[in-house]
Specification:
Distance between the termini: 34 Å
CATH class: Alpha Beta
Bound molecules: alpha-D-ribofuranose
Order of helices and strands: EEEHEHEEEHHEHEEHHEEEHHH
Amino acid sequence: MSAKVVVIGSLNMDLVTRAPRLPRGGETLIGQSFATVSGGKGANQAVAAARLGAQVSMVGCVGSDAYGEELRGALLAEQIDCQAVSTVDGSSGVALIVVDDNSQNAIVIVAGANGALTPALLGCFDSVLQAADVIICQLEVPDATVGHALKRGRELGKTVILNPAPASRPLPADWYSSIHYLIPNESEAAALSGLPVDSRETAEIAAARLIEMGAGKVIITLGAQGSLFADGARFEHFPAPTVKAVDTTAAGDTFVGGFAAALADGKSEVEAIRFGQVAAALSVTRAGAQPSIPTLSDVQAFKTP
Ligand code: RIB
């Protein structure tokens, strides 16, 4: 039986426009296309872990609108267990996304139903957490719930991963001791550590600081520059596979889901990082959040161009 990954987090309907470039303040641009795509950092990570070989349960909330049914259906189609996905009155989470001709994006999220995932509701699904090998959290549900999930995961002896996204401020200091793997991108690492992160050297300094703050191990994702692993004893840099990027949306989510699936499957950290990086590289060659996430056979067939 495949190893079990439990994702506690957001489900969003992504409203995606493509435009030649990102708009400036006060500017109206003519877009080239529009699509609604299932997303949300939590749901994307769940889909990534499922497509990449894990048995997955999702804990989250959708609204009582049509998006809610669609978001749940997208997870069920991946054989993800949704017994802990609650439907609450009101709107589902949404993300307004603009992707430009350089494949960069800008995203505004509105939490909607994701805000209803309280610690009390999470407590109703403790049996789901108990069945996990690896637990993943992000920051698109209430902070109190994330804090509860991290602590409970650690108490239960699970491997606990926090992808601190989106982050624009330091994390509560008492979270760190529950985190086995902290996986921020450059801007999140800067926000958490209070240090600039714009190179491999500055990423090492920030990662060391995050370990001093209490995180077990840190993996800073550096986009096309790969990722930096730190465990307090050593740093290791992993170059990213070279691909032609179409849309970077959910690349970080694909890395996190792939890393977790590989770890849950018994792979070493180094193997899990390389596996996550190939999956993330493949995801940027395709448009959208969940539609861009590769399968296990895609990753196994990947050859550096
Ligand atoms: O990481 C990408 C995701 O961020 C999108 O799917 C969007 O929903 C936002 O949560």
